[in-house]
Design goal:
Pfam families: BTB_2 (PF02214). InterPro entries: SKP1/BTB/POZ_sf, T1-type_BTB. This protein is α+β, with helices and mostly antiparallel strands. The protein has one domain: Potassium Channel Kv1.1, Chain A (2-Layer Sandwich), CATH 3.30.710. A three-stranded mixed beta sheet has the order 2-1-3.
């Protein structure tokens, strides 16, 4: 079984690791766009992809991408995330 590559992220100073397939799970999403083909992000000093956003809520986004559900405590967190359109 072939596994999706692991991606290291630095989101506003918070560090995350996830699969490339999770980031591409919803093809019309901004994350899928950023990680389709050659990633369109700069790297931090350690080589992690850097997103200049508030990372305190990004864990809830990853949880949704991984499981298609949000724990109850994460729903409030996601409501405060800004909607950013390209």
């Amino acid at each position: 079984m072939k596994h999706s590559p692991v991606v290291q992220l630095n989101v506003g100073g918070y560090l995350f690791s996830t699969s490339l397939s999770a980031l591409r799970k919803h093809p019309d999403s901004r994350l899928a766009e950023l990680f389709s083909g050659q990633p369109k992000l700069r790297a931090d000093a350690e080589g992690r992809y850097f997103l200049d956003r508030d990372g305190s809520h990004f864990g809830a986004v990853l949880e949704f991408l991984r499981s298609e559900s949000l724990p109850t405590e994460s729903v409030r967190e996601v409501r405060v995330l800004p909607v950013v359109h390209p």
